[in-house]
Specification:
One of its GO terms (biological process) is protein secretion by the type II secretion system. Belongs to the GSP H family. It is a single-pass membrane protein. About 30% of the residues lie in helices and about 25% in strands. By secondary structure, the chain is of the alpha+beta class. The chain has one domain (about 35-190): minor pseudopilin epsh fold (3-Layer(bab) Sandwich), CATH 3.55.40.10. Strands 1, 2, 3, 4 and 6 form a five-stranded antiparallel β-sheet that branches. Strands 5-7-8-9 form a four-stranded antiparallel β-sheet, with helices on one face. Strand 7 (about 155-165) and strand 8 form a beta hairpin. The longest helix is centred in the N-terminal third of the chain and has 26 residues, at about 35-60. The chain is elongated and about 100 Å long.
């Protein structure tokens, strides 16, 4: 008489394979999600670009002037309203964006003076705007370094996001904005 032996896997073998697959999947997930400083820097730069493109489109549609205030560790969007720059706080994406620890911003403007010689005195760049504000007024009504115009143009700039890697070597990500309202991660001529 022959004993029929069933072919297949025991419950223990199936559980062991499932455990190994779970460990492998979690290792892959951890290696993908543990972004290095360069990925974090690029993510911050891309977030800035996306918000700026959104706001630039809004200036064209609304006809309002919007500016960007850049500090060493944060940036925020401000709206020109009734002779003052007012922070935009209704939208989470446009409220003050604090950068992750260790990331610094360095802004370089492509020389656009506040007052042109042939400009009339009654413009919104006139004397009260140029006067130095108190510290409290600077918080309530911050002055932007980058202006976004209703025509779709903006102040040309280079915004450098910098940090250091694990070996303490500096790394950076550069956002460039031109006068026509175009934004680029890196220089425009580097992308050709």
């Amino acid at each position: 008489m022959q004993i029929n032996r069933q072919a297949g896997f025991t419950l223990l073998e199936v559980l062991l394979v499932a455990l190994l697959m779970g460990l492998a999947a979690s290792a892959v997930t951890l290696s993908i999600s543990s972004a290095g400083p360069e990925q974090v820097l690029n993510k911050q730069a891309q977030r800035f670009m996306a918000a700026t493109e959104l706001v630039l489109g809004e200036t064209v549609l609304s006809g309002q002037f919007i500016g960007i205030v850049v500090d060493e560790t944060q940036y925020q969007f401000v709206l020109y309203n009734e002779g003052k720059w007012v922070p935009i706080e209704q939208d989470k994406m446009l409220a003050t964006q604090q950068l992750e620890p260790g990331i610094k911003l360095d802004l370089i403007l492509d020389g656009m003076p506040l007052m042109q010689e042939d400009e009339e005195q009654d413009s919104w760049f006139d004397e009260p705007f140029i006067d130095e504000l108190s510290a409290e007024e600077k918080i309530k009504n911050p002055r932007p370094q980058i202006l976004l115009f209703p025509s779709g143009e903006m102040t040309p700039f280079e915004l450098r996001f910098t940090t250091v890697d694990d070996r303490r070597q500096p790394i950076e990500s550069l956002v460039v904005g031109d006068a026509l309202g175009r934004l680029s991660l890196g220089r425009f001529d580097d992308q050709a």
